[in-house]
Design brief:
By secondary structure, the protein is an alpha/beta fold. Helices cover about 35% and strands about 25% of the residues. The chain has helices at about 15-30, 40-50; strands at about 5, 30-40, 55. Strands 1-2-3 form a three-stranded parallel β-sheet, with helices on one face.
């Protein structure tokens, strides 16, 4: 049975980029990596990163109403 890992760092593009080496580390050791990200970022990351199974989720801006 293959090991799997889910990473949760889904908001900022910079945060995702900074955490990519973590995903690569585990991928290189035979772990299947799943990562939910904002659907707006999905095309860019799917085209650039082949060692993560990205899971898109819809973007919902936070309301600024008090």
């Amino acid at each position: 049975m293959k090991k799997t890992l889910g990473l949760i760092q889904s908001r900022g593009i910079g945060d995702i980029i900074i955490a990519l080496p973590i995903a690569k580390y585990y991928h290189d050791r035979g772990v299947e990596v799943y990562w939910p990200i904002d659907a707006r970022f999905l095309p860019s990351f799917q085209n650039a990163v082949d060692y993560v199974k990205f899971i898109p989720f819809p973007f919902h801006p936070q309301s600024t109403d008090s």
